[in-house]
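Design review, sub-item: ligand-bound model
Attendees: FS, YL, KQ
YL presented the inputs for the manganese (II) ion complex:
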Amino acid sequence: MVSSNSLINGDRLWTRLMALAEIGATPAGGVNRQALSDGEIEAWRRVVGWAQAADLTVATDAAGNLFMTLPGRDPTAPPILLGSHLDSQPTGGKFDGAAGVMAAFEAVVTLAEQRLRPACDLVVVAWMNEEGSRFAPGMMGSEAFVGARSLVAIRAVPDADGVCVGDALDRLHAAFPDLPHKPLGFPVAGYLELHIEQGPLLEASEHVIGAVTGIQGKKTFQVVIEGAEGHAGTLAQNERRDALLVFARMATALNAEIGAIDDAIKFTIGRVTVEPNAPSVVPSRVTFSIDLRHPDNAVLDAAGARIAVLCRRCALPCTVTLTPLVDAPSNEFDPRLRDLIVQAARDQGQPAMAILSAAGHDARHLAKVCPAAMIFIPCRDGASHVEHEWAEPAHVTAGAAVLAQVLREIAGVRS
Ligand code: HGY
Ligand code: MN
Ligand code: MN
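KQ shared the predicted structure:
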């Protein structure tokens, strides 16, 4: 058995995680710390303070990712990255993202305290805008880092108030004028991410550790229905091009067909905006989101094509425009790293369960450029993206200890 307190300090990890949860805390006990917001800037201040107190070198990049580095013996060797994200959904929880950043931070800081030197730099990372709630799509920071999405395109994306990512990024960087900027993307030897499962399987099977096999595929779209405004009191029903009425028909048809493809499909219309959104005006435009997921890439592709057909079929007497935002096939994580996670969990008396991630994570993009793997811990009732999201302190500690042991094994740690 490997004692977790030789690898990490579980109490300190929990204390810091709860301190982070105070930033953007909601009255119902959740967290609203949206990407590049004042809340995330404050979270950066707190985490950067902890990093500087631990003599880690802190940097950012043009995409607003945060890097906290423990130097290795060979500064020229590609570093190992480990972390997650600090932004949350508007009604998010204390653990989604933050648990991964702070577990990584704890694993690296404990190494530094024990005066152990890794062969290469160890870089704790917090990716910009993983959640995609303020700015869609999500995972902008990790996609920019691996070159999967252009920073120019990312900077142009507006939020609901018309503030673009670029303006928000400039504001973040202005709040940390002394942070050096790393190049956007650099060679990486490996990537590890701890995350709550955001599903019920670990808890139901009474496992504490999940060795994640991969992440299911995901497609997202933005759909715009264009009709025509009109006076609610004078425009005849049969002369109307009512965008909201078309949306209602379209959403019903999509859910009835796509949402019923099989037991594994996940189909969500999570955001709808109506214009001009006035009670006495016939709606002229509806913009809505589609989030589609499935573990089988062939089923996902067929469902994505079907969505376009159904939208066009339901559009009259309006017009419809469907814009793909994300097209991410199911992936597989690095088998060697997965084996190390299973072995570390066994060493620590926590048999690991192989599990597919139903939720998306930045590790999906890091896996395109380096060996990458994820460690899951349970969350109560599998609930996440909700304010009552919860993980047990012992599970956070156990997951961080597995992360720390795998890190030491791949980082060539020597005293
Ligand atoms: O949506 C997701 O899968 C992630 O939790 N942001
Ligand atoms: Mn997350
Ligand atoms: Mn999330």
